[in-house]
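Throughout our pipeline, every protein is held as a single compact record rather than as scattered files. Such a record has a labelled line for the sequence and another for the backbone structure tokens. The remainder of this section carries one protein's record, kept here as part of the documentation:
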Amino acid sequence: MTCSFAGLCYAEFASLIPIAGSAYTYTYATLGEFFAWIIGWDLILEYSLSATTVSIGWSGYMVSFLKDLGLTLPARLSAAPFAFDSQHQTWTATGALFNLPAFFIVALITILLVIGIKESAKVNVVIVFLKITAILIFIGAGLFFIKPELWKPFVPANQGGFGFFGLSGILRGAGVIFFAYLGFDAVSTVAQEAKNPQKDVPRGILGSLFICTVIYIAFSLVLTGVVHYSNLNVAAPVAVAIDAMRLFWLSPLIKIAAIVGLISVMIVQLMAQSRIFFSMATDGLIPQAASKVHPRFGTPYLTTIVTGLAVGVVASLLPIGIVGELASIGTLLAFIIVCAGVLVLRYTHPELPRPFRTPGVPFIPVLGILSCFYLMAGLPKDTWIRLLGWMALGLVIYFAYGIRKSKLRRKQLPG
């Protein structure tokens, strides 16, 4: 429901302002440069860490698949050097050096994105087709192995602390995994590359939101109906479910689909990140080098390479829980600002033509703001501290560089 409120607001903006940049561009046009910087800096965190989270998950599936083939990757080269216990807020050494598979896949995708979006899109279409096919096969096959007693109690009792099972656990769980809905934001980041953005982008946003929601619910029910939830807190939970069903013929297919499917997610996230950088550089808020386009491939290659390098390093060193929580709180903050932007623009510029109009204004945007903030409130305090620290760094950069180099402010200066 939270995503549907935000998705409807995104759809209006995408039809009204069909250019690259996603929530950054929408905010720039409605709330001004300062708020645009806030959300642009937030989107950098959001996309980078969501790609990081997915690459760590990809590593887990790849290690599991290689093990099936008799190839065992040393644990020292396939995990983060430190683990974080969110319940007790403690760090422990794992004995590992770094997560090599996570770094490798990010580097590979970065090269693909530098080569060009057309090539990336073609690869992505094939990957998505394979992924959806495998997911539907998993859901269909898993229906015959569901044990309803694994759903009892459907909401496990709270363990004595906020966010650890019980109703507060549902709230935190929804908040932690919220970055999984980042996809429809990514649709809007490439609006300029759509053939008919005023129609295609709203359809893409709302259609993907509906389809993904149905698949997520069905997949989660099968997964928790086949394996007890307490056994799923691993990097490759689907692999655990496949092994539990003992469908050995299905195991390679599902694991391959998970491996290539997560690649498609990272392609979208890393591509969207480079487009955000490109839009901010075009407005003068970050160095112009970020807007440089490769003379042969026509892609923003510098931002793509820098983003890929940063994501790869973080993915190789940090545990999945930390980066996942930060990616989600960043996503929720972006959705709040977009909902607020729709609300503001309806009152400040009601005359603008809107090919798609968010229904139920002001109620839908207000519900979007409140529901996103509600999910943010359920996230751990440390996640809030890390977000505030990141935003504080962003403000320093804005006032030290962005505000002086801003093209908008230069136009406003006399003479």
Notes: The longest helix spans residues 33-68.
